[in-house]
Amino acid sequence: MSYKLLDTTLRDGEQCPGVSFTRAAKVELARGLDALGVPVLEAGVPAMGRAERRTLDELHSLGLAAEILVWNRLVDADLNLCLAAGYPCLHLSVPTSDVMLRGKLGRDRAWVLREVDRVVSRAVQAGRRVSLGAEDASRTDLPFLAQVFDRAAQAGATRVRYADTLGLLTPARTAVAIGTLVSDLSIPLDFHGHDDFGLATANTLAAHDAGATYLSCSLLGLGERAGNAALEEVAGALEFLVPGANPRTDFSALVALCRRAAVLAGVEVDPRKPLVGAEVFSHESGIHVDGILKDPLTYEAWPPEAFGGQRKLRFGKHTGIAALKYLARRSGAEVGEAEARDFLESLREAMGQTPGADPEAAFEQLILSHGGHR
User: To which CATH superfamily is domain 4-265 assigned?
Assistant: First the structure.
């Protein structure tokens, strides 16, 4: 099943506490995402002020192939700003759960339906392409949510968004909710998952399987609290794990863009972060390295290069004899079987007794003592 990525790095990603992109950074990231073929870029919030609108103006002027989507509340004030600025593609968001309607707005369900009819119709009549978003959809009564989405479609919206705003879904619950909604929808559905329980990517894949056409993501999963579904994880899983999913992605370019996004956002990338971390294609365990040396497919379903990565064989406490001899030979030293066994035995004994013992330093000394180089 085909899908369309909707990147929200420039909007929800920037809402990650402590992250602020300059205008130049947003332009750079937008160009990079567009070059990767991401079809929709959620770029910012016009109501934030003149500086934000100037950035949005510049993004619109770039002539990108991607749709530049601007985020708004479902209120006249936000819509008026967009109409005055001439933005063609608008996302209009409204809380739909009873807890948010009561606690945040002091409104009821009838008000939501009236405002969807009125504001979406007004935007469409002004010639705008409209996406209607249901905030806190995962805590919204499903029949009411279906009614909201149907009203949006009737008013002329071309897409609706199911937002798991607090990251409360599981893949099973996602599949039921999205499958139920799309069965009666006449327009595409966009799934927007948050990662509070580490399930955003899994939920997004479940939404895709259940019929969601648009998948909201951000580079590195940047976003509110624990973040959003990570674009690189969703794209990677769909390309390598889901037969028949389209489109294809240039992962070398995507990984480079993720690392650039980290620099621009001022955040550190966890070395174990899936696909983009510096150590995710590293191997140390003796069993693993022995298998890799015999046949990489034993512990790598796809070569690291397919993801823009590079295999690393590390020396450490769990390195086996065969791996030690291979790593030594690669450094220009020959270490015999018995010597390798004795060295590993002594090293593991020391590491079990001495906090902070450095196996790499010990290995380097072994290599140098045999005329090798590091």
Answer: Aldolase class I (3.20.20.70)
